[in-house]
Amino acid sequence: MEDLEELHDSSIQSIRIDFEKQIISIEVSIYNNETKDYYSICLTFYEVQNYKTNNIFINVLEELGIYTFDYKEYSGKKEVEFVILTGSGKQDININFECKYFKRELL
User: Fold this and answer.
1) Which residue from 5, 82, 83, 88 has the highest number of Cβ atoms inside 10 Å of its Cβ?
2) Is 18 helix (H, G, I), strand (E, B) or coil?
3) In Å, how far are 2, 5, 38, 55 from 34, measured between CA atoms?
């Protein structure tokens, strides 16, 4: 399992969901405690299936952040769960899906 602990409490720059191509891409900005600077990565999930969420309404002016990210591997698939913070006093977004594989790219 790839170590993606860095995603916890990271700031979301963009989310792209393409149901036709079965792809979800999330670009995040992560703070590096050693260098005292930010770096960005893009996670792209391929062959997405069984997508579920409790809430999809997002105000484009809101600052979004990943509160938790977890995935488990089984039978050649990955079961993925994100909890996204949408701001003080607002409902979090829970996103769950399965995918065949994903790629982590440093931007």
Assistant:
1) 82
2) strand
3) 21, 15, 10, 36
Contact 69, 76 (CB under 8 A): no
1 confidence band (pLDDT: 50, 70, 90): very low
Give the DSSP per-residue string, 30-97.
EEETTTTEEEEEEEEEES-EEEEES-----TTSPPEEEEEEEEEETTEEEEEEEEE-STTS--EEEEE
pTM: 0.83
Q: Look at residue 5 and give its three-state secondary structure.
A: helix
pLDDT in tens, 14-65: 889 898 999 999 999 998 889 999 999 999 999 999 999 886 666 655 688 9
Check if the beta carbon of residue 48 is closer than 8 Å to that of residue 23: yes
Diameter of the chain measured on Cα atoms = 40
